[in-house]
Amino acid sequence: MGNLYVPCRAVLEQLGVDYVIPPVNSQRTLSLGSRYSPEGLCIPFKMTLGNMIEAAELGANTLLVPGGYGICRLGYYTRVQEQILHNLGYDIEIIQLGVSERKFLGMMDIIKRVSNDSPWRRILSAFRFGLSKLNAVDQIERIVQKVRPVELIPGTANQLYTRAVQAIDNADDYDTLKRVKADYLGQLKHVAINEQARPLIVGVTGEFYVVLEPFSSFDIERELGKLGVEVRRATFISGWTKFSLFLNPFGINEKSRIHKAAYPYLKRDIGGDGWESVGEKVLHAKEYDGLIHLAPFTCMPEIIAENIMPSTKEQMPVLTILCDEQIAKAGVLTRLEAFVDLLERKRRKQNDQLRVTV
Amino acid sequence: MKACLGVDVGSVTTKLALLDESDELVSHVYLLTQGRPIDAVQQGLRDIRKQLPQDVDINGVATTGSARYLAGVIVGADLVKNEITTHAVAALHYYPDVQTIIEIGGQDSKLTVVRDGIVIDFAMNTVCAAGTGSFLDHQALRLDMSIQELSQRALTSQTPVRIAGRCTVFAESDMVHKQQMGYRVEDILYGLCQALVRNYLGNVGLGKELEPPIIFQGGVAFNQAIVRAFREELDTEVIVPIHHEVMGAIGAALMAHEEMATNNGISQFKGFEQSEVKYHASSFECKACPNRCEVAEISQDGQTLARWGGRCDMWERVSSTQLYSSEEIK
Q1: Predicted local distance difference test score (pLDDT) of residue A175
Q2: How far apart are CA A296 and CA A29, in angstroms?
Q3: Which CATH architecture has domain A199-358?
Q4: Which residue in A has a C-alpha nearest to residue B87's C-alpha?
Q5: Choosing among A336, A345, A346, A348, which should be mutated to test the B contact, i.e. which has the most B CBs within 10 A?
Q6: What ipTM goes with this model?
Q7: Out of A130, A241, A250, B220, which residue is the most buried by the measure of CB atoms under 10 Å away?
Q8: How many other β-carbons are positioned within 10 Å of the β-carbon of residue A151?
Q9: Are B122 and B15 part of one and the same domain?
Q10: What does residue B256 show for φ and ψ, rounded to 5 degrees?
């Protein structure tokens, strides 16, 4: 999922675990996943099942799956996927990495087991290095989001981003990592941009997996960048890891601000990221020009969120896009273009009115 | 005479509209795409050329519709716009106080919500083509009548039959069933129109506020029975503009005019002679990564003009051939 493989590789490498990283998500991943999944399941299930099959083909015997036990059916996914893999004849075990019903202690057990009983000091230092890589990747991505819409030569930021992720992935120690990070941050700073441009700001929210995995959501951030729109996204893997792996077990939750914002319209967690989607609209209505809400097809929590959003007092145009293997990209692009036109015309009209009042 | 041209290439029909400097419609063309968008655009250019005076000077051209990028390459578009925006712009031009725009075309149906002259929301049919022109065409064909006749006969219905309209396949089997039961064809046809309207309002219109004035445009607005069904279902007046079938092209022309006026640019229009040029469209499977994208390309005299269809932007720059040995990847 997204760049999650970068920190995972770093941790496993440091711990001396023999690992394989499945190939990047492609049409083949999705086709494999869809073929062996029940039709009505959502795209995160199908994509991850595809990843698992591709990993098994490379000889993996244990699968590490970061993820919690949410309220929606996602909580059962790894168990179902394990069964499907067994039926396909792969002798494979899935270990879910996240907070289980045994809270923190349960997770400690899992980590200890995965790391072939390494001493705790070594485990901690491996995780620290993985997290630094993750933070570096996310930091660069945030800058790329800002450069993309205003760059003079389209595609420059994307190319730098791809190379930066690769370089960070290859870095073996803190020094190299630091140097690579500084190098790419510097290069991004010097990309020729249109100084006058005041790009529209559009938030991207919705279900965690489709928001973070560009393949499953039609490369929406790149497409928005091409249309000259700056993307803001609250969900980053680094933030999620920090909380769901380290702080949630102690009851600290970064999302309380978002939940509080959503509270007048939705009073509890409904699974997935439905609560957060509503909260983000309320929280950022003044700050963003519009919001794109990504939802996997058949995702119950996001469907509920979609239907709550139009009724909030805080107004902001929202475009919900359903992500599914059956949906053609052309239709999504037409909607995106129209949505951006809508926001642009709205802003132009508001500016005109301002001028009249002045 | 200075003028702006709008070209709307849809799934079923191709529309061209020419506006003069004061945005008055000078002439328009409406023809079938028949799955050959390049030929349709060239034929359209020939047809509209015949209707124009000799001294016409094209100042700006914009393309829209599902083949907008392809058409844009052929005519040399100054602007390529999606059909949702162009339809809204055209509707607002003729009816500045419009609040709701219903648009039903060959394979898609859209709803645009406008308040105070700004589009604030829109919806488009997603996975289902029920309620669009193609389905009506298909049913007319099955009953061995023209689409005009279907509309006329449906209007004579006194006691419409209820048809299941959620899905075209179910609607068809329900229609067959009702025919076999002996219901009158008129009543079944009007029942079908009502079902399509219900389906549209229940899917595309779900959760949207449809305030009057309501404009109904697109090819299906030719069908008086559908118009009547909308009026009855919404219990309000539904306005069908005179040139409802070319509103997308008109909107494109209006936007081309606006674009050229603000940027003071010189039009890229390749001229009406383009209708005689031979274009070659083809596609190949890119083997650079496991995605195996099907990339389409359009060329003229062996020279590639444009490519699209890939997930990444590797092929979008035409000069990519120099970067990648194309034989290897194709």
Answers
A1: 92
A2: 17
A3: 3-Layer(aba) Sandwich (3.40)
A4: A338
A5: A345
A6: 0.79
A7: B220
A8: 22
A9: no
A10: -65, -45
